[in-house]
Amino acid sequence: MQRYGRGEMNSPRTHQLKRVNPAQYPPRRQQYLQGDTYLDQMLDVPPPVRGPNLPFVIQQPEILVKDWELNEFLYYGGFYIPRDRLKHHTLSLGTSGSGKSLLLEISMAWALSHCKKGSGVKVVLFDTKGDFLPIAAHFAQQQQVPLYYLNISDNRAIHPEGGVAGYAWDIAKDCDGRLEYLMEMMEILLPTPDQGDPFWAQGEQGIAIGSAEYYEQQQPGKWGLFDIYNACLARAPELAKILRHTEFGTAIAERLLEGNADKTRDGVLLGVLFKMLHFQTAAAHQYYTPRERWFSIKEFMQGEGIVVISQDLSAKKSSSPIMRAMFQTFVNHYNARPGSKKYPDTFVFMDEFPFIGKMPGILDVLTFQRSKGVSLYLTCQGIEQLMDQYGVYGAETIANNCSFKILCRTESPTTAEWSVKLAGTQRCFESHASTQRTAQGASMGSAEALVERTRFITSDFMDMPDTSPYDGLHYFFLSPFTRGMCYRCWKSGKDIETLRPRKAEVPGMIQKPAQYLRMPSPTKQQAPHTYQQVQQTVNNTAWREEFLNVDDPLQYALRVETLALIEKELEAIFGMMCKREGNK
């Protein structure tokens, strides 16, 4: 990094001072801290080059490390950082309106700009607020890479629109027939409550696991969430018959569904019934989505592309478990991936990730997957959110493994105090004046001491203005390449508009009609199967010849007319099925 004002740094007054802010705050100004006094030095430096083509054209950057010309780089925390240094993860904290989501979107756009055909770069966006799809769609269209959009409440899974097609998660293909994966997924989708007897929740999970194992045995890799839904809503004798096809299912059926323990059986079945009410939206989503748009995480890892996993904020109880289960599936498959990646090739962005719920797999990503090519960018409101979900130790583990930290304005004293400690201390000189009065008069003296003080105070983190075109964007930035220094940064409103990523003209969400949020009745689910049976019979040449083999001309004409009516009705049914499947 280029340093300015070295003559000033080596002067007798400032040779012990630590530089607080090498970025522009305010514009073209650099600050040093001596005790409680700021020494400002105006910099005779031209402003950095900006341009309307960001993030596609390389501009003259503010560089944190050397040799950047030899590498691809991305824009993180207001600085251009080579891609091979982004094995480190990022944590951004700040209240609503502080600008943390804007900084995430800017960094996300740079990662998306590297996702090109043949690059092998994958970008995964967990979109809790529904803001990421227009950005992702713009880059997917411009760079001709696949875009996989998963939202169990969005109608584009049935009827693609505006160049965006919705997908459904192929849980069967990603579980790969492994019982431990099935168990892990069902524990996430049907969670055990933090309080109360876990017996009932474990019984519900056991029924779901046994049902999934049965369908995996009967239709390897070709079943869906709707099959589990149907099995769990079946009557007790029918459910027991399904479970008895596997060893694990037999044990569940014997302990829960059979015998004289009627209250236990009824309690477990009632619990499963109520859990399925939230599970139904996800099951219906996969049921109505054409099979060619079932998305497999395992297959996605083999190429490049963009994945947007979003939710309906009005139905979080249905969508959040699916998001957590998909994240855990990413973790499982990347844990099995060979390590020693020179460059990160998978960028994962999670905005306001505590609102998705507790994700145990996040500690695995932060701890083990840095060498496997995964770079994670997390944002949340404050450190107390992490402490509440993951405990003090878990929150510190998350923070410790995120080497890049972006600290925006906070309203929380707890987060402000934590940020002060994070910024650390510095040594500086303090002068103390003293006056002594005696009968002979007054004498004055001063003493100077080298002391250790915090670099910032809590008000520095709590008094920053909201992000706006007038005040710009204020934040603090820490990285492994700044020698432990906490940099106070500022971007003007003009810079913000220049850096803000482009968006495609697509809506963030198109709500499904109510009938597609519910599973159809078993009779309607059997209709496609019945249609196929009738179609095969009518098209069978031998059957047609036998059916028309009558001597009476009147009977022959009647049967020909009957066949024509059947074929016409089959064509109408097929049209309705195509409309439902969204693939006319």
TrEMBL record:
Gene3D superfamilies per the UniProt record, alphabetical: P-loop containing nucleotide triphosphate hydrolases (3.40.50.300)
GO cellular component term, pick one: plasma membrane
InterPro entries: P-loop_NTPase (IPR027417), T4SS-coupling_protein (IPR051539), T4SS_TraD_DNA-bd (IPR019476)
Keyword terms, alphabetized: Cell membrane, Membrane, Transmembrane, Transmembrane helix
UniProt superkingdom: Bacteria
Membrane topology: Multi-pass membrane protein
Disordered as annotated region, ranges: 1-26
Cellular location(s): Cell membrane
Ranges of residues in domain Type IV secretion system coupling protein TraD DNA-binding: 77-468
Cross-referenced PANTHER family: CONJUGATIVE TRANSFER: DNA TRANSPORT
Protein name: Transfer complex protein TrsK-like protein
